[in-house]
């Protein structure tokens, strides 16, 4: 749903300014860092100990690194129209399917945790990340001569993969003993990798570093307040 909501602005505008894109991406980064640092990592230690945290976090980072090296992520800049839109759209769809699997697993593991408030908190963090990602995907597709309708459908499909993987993560963690702590640490590693590999560099590459920095801090504080509400 968050991915689809991110696409809604393209129904009214066709271009996204660099300033707003950077601010939104940095805000998302702050939310994800906060959720990982104050939610996932402490609960992983509580559930399974520091060794599980270390192993799970490193696994999450390595898996995301492997995905990034082999599956290119979307980039809305410098993308002229493509003559074979269907082929390009399929490649983007496959890439985002794979990118979204760890995010869905993160949500599922969090809902299986002993801390009832962790699931909603991580779901909000992942959803916050999905909204600008959906918008960026839609802008990418429009620049590639796709229709608004196709952009909306493709965004919905990529979001659907997160729902499926979230269910898989939840039932895996619920029925396999001692896996929850590793899963939470894995989720933290995956989220931190996304932040430092993608979101922060993307929000600091167009001359709007200062507003992006403030937006990052604001996003971090927003998630801290959300954490307190659900605590």
From TrEMBL:
GO terms for molecular function: zinc ion transmembrane transporter activity. The keyword rRNA processing does not apply. It is found in: Cell membrane. It comes from the Bacteria. Coiled coil: none annotated. It holds the Pfam family Zip. It is a multi-pass membrane protein. Keywords: Cell membrane, Membrane, Transmembrane, Transmembrane helix, Zinc. The chain crosses the membrane at residues 23-44, 50-68, 89-112, 118-142, 151-173, 179-200, 212-230. GO terms for cellular component: plasma membrane. The keyword RNA-binding does not apply. Belongs to the ZIP transporter (TC 2.A.5) family. This is Dihydroorotate dehydrogenase. It comes from Paenibacillus riograndensis.
């Amino acid at each position: 749903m968050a991915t689809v909501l991110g696409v809604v602005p393209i129904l009214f505008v066709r271009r996204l300014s660099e300033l707003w894109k950077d601010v939104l991406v940095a805000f998302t980064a702050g939310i994800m860092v906060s959720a990982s640092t104050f939610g996932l990592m402490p609960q992983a230690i509580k559930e399974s100990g520091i060794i599980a945290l270390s192993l799970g976090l490193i696994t999450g980072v390595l898996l995301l690194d492997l995905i990034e090296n082999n599956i290119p992520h979307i980039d809305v800049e410098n993308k002229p129209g493509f003559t074979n839109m269907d082929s390009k759209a399929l490649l983007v769809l496959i890439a985002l399917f794979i990118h979204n699997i760890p995010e869905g697993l993160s949500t599922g593991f969090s809902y299986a945790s002993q801390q009832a408030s962790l699931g909603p908190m991580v779901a909000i963090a992942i959803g916050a990340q999905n909204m600008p990602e959906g918008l960026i995907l839609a802008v990418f597709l429009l620049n590639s001569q796709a229709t608004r309708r196709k952009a909306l459908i493709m965004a919905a499909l990529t979001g659907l993969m997160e729902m499926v993987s979230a269910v898989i993560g939840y039932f895996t963690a619920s029925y396999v003993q001692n896996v929850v702590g590793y899963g939470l640490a894995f989720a933290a590693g995956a989220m931190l990798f996304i932040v430092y590999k993608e979101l922060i560099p993307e929000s600091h590459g167009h001359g709007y570093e200062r507003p992006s920095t403030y937006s990052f801090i604001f996003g971090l504080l927003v998630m801290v307040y959300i954490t307190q509400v659900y605590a």
